[in-house]
Design a protein that fits this description.
Blueprint: H1 4-13, H2 18-31, H3 33-46, E1 55-59, H4 65-73, E2 78-83, H5 86-98, E3 105-109, E4 121-127, H6 136-146, E5 147-158, H7 185-195, E6 199-205, H8 208-227, H9 235-254, E7 263-269
Parallel strand pairs: 1-2, 1-4, 2-3, 4-5
Antiparallel strand pairs: 5-7, 6-7
Helix pairs in contact: 2-3, 3-4, 6-7, 8-9
Length: about 270
């Protein structure tokens, strides 16, 4: 199942004006449970430091939704977003310049297996990126090198408990772009220790409530749109009926400790 073409289609629809782009970000924040977790972690880290001059690297910036959140929440943050898709890089640079944040939020091309800026950043985000990169240990090393002492790496990635909608060895990932179906929680912690991180906390997200919400609010709509773009017209009535239930399930997921889950939220300190 091709996930990126759907995201590109929706991105083009909402990229007509700055207010539509902001609406797109808001919709992503509401739909994607990982955004709930990542934003909560950032708020917990910097609630008392909102006026500090934090330097952040968004390692795999995509549409820039997390850069928009951080630049709104931390008014003095200096942010670099890197990605391998030049179209998205150019698009993000234009948008953030348009809304008056181009002086402190910038985007550039970078291959994370080669990118390293030693002792530069206080915070590095890696949101749904590592499952796309085969040479993950090299990337973890580069990100650790790029952090200052005491800096934090925040990761959201699928787990090996069905994180790519794979539930046994004979199934294939729902999202074709993944090079691995998900991380074992112990394996990713060991790889981060090997990369140079000393304090690592990993926990499951997308427990039963979040997984059901994801199926309702993401998987089924993506299947519909892949079947026919004409079905885009049905998404509005579909979400009117379905999303309130998905919202409640996502909320329950964030206030619950999960023994297992299809996602992982990892915080690693250099």
């Amino acid at each position: 199942m091709q996930y990126d073409p759907v995201k590109k289609t929706l991105g083009n629809i909402f990229n007509k004006a700055a207010w539509m782009r902001k609406l797109f970000y808001r919709l992503l924040d509401l739909l994607l449970l990982r955004a709930w977790y990542i934003k909560r972690e950032i708020k917990n880290l910097y609630r008392s430091r909102r006026n500090d001059e934090i330097r952040m690297l968004d390692a795999g910036s995509g549409y820039g939704q997390y850069d928009f959140f951080v630049s709104s929440y931390l008014k003095k943050a200096q942010i670099l977003g890197v990605d391998v898709k030049q179209e998205q890089i150019d698009d993000c640079n234009q948008f953030f310049t348009k809304i008056g944040r181009g002086d402190r939020v910038k985007f550039q091309y970078a291959d994370l297996t080669e990118f390293s800026q030693p002792d530069t950043y206080d915070l590095v985000l890696s949101v749904d990126v590592m499952e796309h990169i085969l040479e993950d240990e090299k990337v973890f090393q580069n990100l650790c090198q790029s952090l200052r002492k005491g800096g934090v790496l925040l990761i959201s990635t699928p787990s090996d408990q069905g994180g790519s909608d794979v539930h046994d060895e004979h199934e294939h990932s729902f999202i074709d772009e993944h090079v691995r179906d998900g991380y074992n929680i112990d394996d990713i912690q060991q790889k981060l220790r090997n990369a140079g991180f000393s304090d690592i906390e990993a926990k499951y997200s997308y427990g039963t409530p979040g997984s059901i919400a994801w199926t309702l609010s993401m998987k089924w709509p993506i299947i519909m749109v892949n079947a026919s773009k004409a079905l885009l017209l049905l998404l509005i009535p579909y979400y009117i009926v379905v999303y309130p239930w998905a919202f409640i399930l996502n909320w329950i997921d964030t206030i619950t400790t999960h023994k297992t889950g299809t996602g992982l939220i990892v915080k690693a300190i250099k």
